[in-house]
Amino acid sequence: MNIVLLGAPGAGKGTQAAFLVEEFDLPHISTGDMLRAAVKAGTELGKKAKSFMDAGELVPDDVIIGLVIERLGQPDTNVGFILDGFPRTTAQAVALDAELSKLERPLDAALLIDVDPEVIVGRLTSRRMCKECGCIGSVADASCPKCGGEMYQRDDDNETTVRNRLDVYAKSTSPLIDYYRGCELLVSIDGDRDPKVVYADVKTALNA
Ligand code: AMP
Questions:
Q1: Alpha carbon distance 14, 8 (integer Å)
Q2: DSSP for residue 201
């Protein structure tokens, strides 16, 4: 299964990816997670990416495309992959198509998790993440529901940055909806429901 998860930040792509990983044991390639790990480790990539991320802007295409191409070259992706947060621009989608056709591993689906932007502002400003396992929770979680680790608020989950991320999504990423519709790969799923209900539709869409 070679899947792209599309949707605004906070639509629930990470949550749906976690369900898919648990059930189908596929590698979860989240460019946001990869960049946060690079920032934490203080690598050159992390230093380059941090200011863009803090402002809610996109990291330049050449940086992120190289990162994903390298990751897709790793053998664990031979069984399939879930791309989460990539592509985010048309240039990234075109580069991904070129790489996957080179690897002879075409996409099976682009799943759009569709959620109203105002719902997203509320979701993201109350979102918390586990410092230990990266599990996604909410302000109501005193500790990680999965591993008991400490929860924190991502630097870019404050309201001003969230609104900018949504603007960037509308301008740069939402054109990909038409792009994948044109490739007959797009499946749109209402993401404004209980995550397990959304997941049932995800599985139906994937015939899984
Ligand atoms: P996310 O966790 O997917 O919301 O990503 C967090 C931040 O990482 C984004 O706001 C961007 O600054 C950066 N980022 C993640 N994926 C990409 C991408 N495909 N292209 C450019 N920037 C990205």
A1: 11
A2: H
CA-nearest residue, atom 9 of ligand 1: 53
d(CA 89, CA 63): 13
Kindly state if the Cβ of 9 falls inside 6 Å of ligand 1: yes
**Per-residue confidence at 208, pLDDT binned at 50, 70, 90?**
confident
- For residue range 49-86, what is the model confidence (pLDDT) as tens digits? 999 999 999 999 999 999 999 999 999 999 999 999 99
Q: So which residues are the catalytic ones?
A: 13, 88, 127, 154, 165
- C-beta of residue 155 within 8 angstroms of C-beta of residue 51: no
Is the CB of residue 58 below 6 angstroms from any atom belonging to ligand 1? yes
Residue 36 CA to ligand 1 center (angstroms) comes to: 9
State in Å: Cα 83 to ligand 1 middle.
Answer: 12
Orientation of helix 61-72 relative to helix 44-55, angle to 10°:
120
Which H/E stretch holds residue 136? strand 136-138
Tell me how far the alpha carbon of residue 122 lies from the centroid of ligand 1, in angstroms.
19
Q: pTM of the predicted model, to two decimals?
A: 0.91
Q: What is the pLDDT of residues 76-123, one digit of tens each?
A: 999 999 999 999 999 999 999 999 999 999 999 999 999 998 999 999
